[in-house]
């Protein structure tokens, strides 16, 4: 399925994924050039979500490979169903059937497909999400080269299996370690940063129905202020902003003040150290000051 | 829709321009290969190249593969791909500038004369003189005049005067470079990037730690904090091992499969051995290492906030254990105070051998096959040969010894100590934050 840039932009919007022009264009190019897309950025900026949304837009199956240290090809590519093969041999012997051939044992019937093979053999173009690729070992990263450049895999017993349909590949990385040049060279690159305040307001409005304009704006503004001003170990992600916005809506808040922020801070800041940092570096007064600056972004609120 | 480039722009040489541009990127250290260039050309066929923004994004997505390189790309792109109007405007400006420059050189030659003769200065030096403020130029002219009018000043003094003027100009240039660097490295403080990876910090990563000025210290400390967190993630990362990660456990496999009549139906594997890294950081705080040591202590403190199981020592002519202070959650100020003001080791001479001996005698419980010892030192020490022998012995007892040397690599051959130590342990340069980051996140 080919998709125009304009349609892709609209589809992102319809799917509630708010992104800027550059992001949409880079994704469009990855689709057009049939190249894997490597997305880097801080945790919670929407990297994994991009894979999910693409699957939704392209009406494709999402095949996800979660990377971790120690991940090997038996978990990522394929594995022979050893138990089933043994049972087959045993049954053959018990039932006195004709001698089983090696090719029969190493056939599709006994092959356990893992995400990479599944994506390659998929009848319909699938979206393959290789999540947190920086967490896997460098050896596994090298193993990915064949899949990502030639869209084929080699299984010694079966030979080389080319892709039925070249999958849309999205790799995400939190940049915990530098990826190899070989992997990067095979991908188009996209860096997702935390969104600007107005973009985050749009995201909040799209994902939290019923939120007041002013609350959405103030929420985004406070979160941006925390990310920028406080020396936090873990800056609040978009997902945390949305959780916070939902919590504020359920508390019937129409606007924010320092006290409300301090009372619900544990939704945004998940460690004691970060909460302490907030108290020391910003505090209730800092939030009130931030909110009083730069206009209210919406209607006048009477709930204070 | 794909439209071949030749149909998009006629009579122009976009491919050649792109090749030149990728050449510039390579000169700046970006790993741009032919594959990337071909990708870029394919990408341009699929976008509206009349839109500068789309054009830039397409090139960025295909040619640049890291956040850090994006800043370099952006700068070069803005200089290289200039709109026609802007290009014309720049050409006119350039012509005016060149005329002005020629006038300035002429004036400089007239102003810098000794007994009616021009001083032998290169065009570059004359240019540097012209770039000085009016006040600085007057001061230099006054100096030349006073020398010229002094007692017993003969024409043979001219080369001496030339050398003085040249060194003064060199000094002015290095000072201006430093100031420019400071402006660049702090200029992005309010930029959109909220992480420590923001491009404004790149300069800071690359300059020698010794050259980091006081105004850059907060930004540098931020970088070190982020680096210590990165390293902590690496150390603490949960190792998930698959069920077949360990070697085959034959005994358990046989026992488990006895119920199947001895047919090995379920394979049993030994669990993967998980070894916890123990890190011992030993930092040289002798006089020659002072400026680096302050940074390393910043880094240490940041690291200890996230990794508790870390042994830290400082040494000069003897060893001092900092682990207790760090475990006692001393804040950075207290720690620096403790090390700088009250330490017996701070600013002293260096005896690496004595430090290693102290380590082996008093802290032998922490030295075992799981320990990785990291030294931060320029290797300058008294009793070098003894120190090397002791280092060899230490290496045999631990898993790994890494030596971080703040001396620039081109100066390593000048010191015998560097060669001897590098023969025994692996040595990496760490004169910049970028190098420290590379070693700690890539080599450890």
Layout of strands and helices, then pairs:
The complex is a heterodimer of chains A (304) and B (444).
Chain A: H1 5-14, H2 21-33, E1 37-41, H3 47-57, E2 62-66, H4 73-76, E3 78-80, H5 82-95, H6 102-105, E4 111-113, H7 115-121, E5 127-131, H8 138-150, E6 152-155, E7 159-162, E8 168-173, H9 181-185, E9 188-192, H10 197-207, H11 213-229, H12 238-250, H13 258-263, H14 265-268, H15 272-281, H16 283-292
Parallel strand pairs in A: 1-8, 1-9, 2-5, 5-8
Antiparallel strand pairs in A: 3-4, 6-7
Helix pairs in contact in A: 1-2, 10-11, 10-12, 11-12
Chain B: H1 5-8, H2 14-27, H3 34-45, H4 52-63, H5 67-80, H6 84-111, E1 113-114, E2 117-118, H7 123-131, H8 134-148, H9 158-187, H10 202-206, H11 217-236, H12 250-256, E3 278-284, H13 290-306, E4 310-315, E5 319-321, H14 323-327, H15 332-340, H16 352-362, E6 371-376, H17 384-397, E7 400-405, H18 416-424, E8 426-429, H19 433-443
Parallel strand pairs in B: 3-4, 3-6, 6-7, 7-8
Antiparallel strand pairs in B: 1-2, 4-5
Helix pairs in contact in B: 3-4, 6-7, 11-13, 11-19, 16-17, 17-18
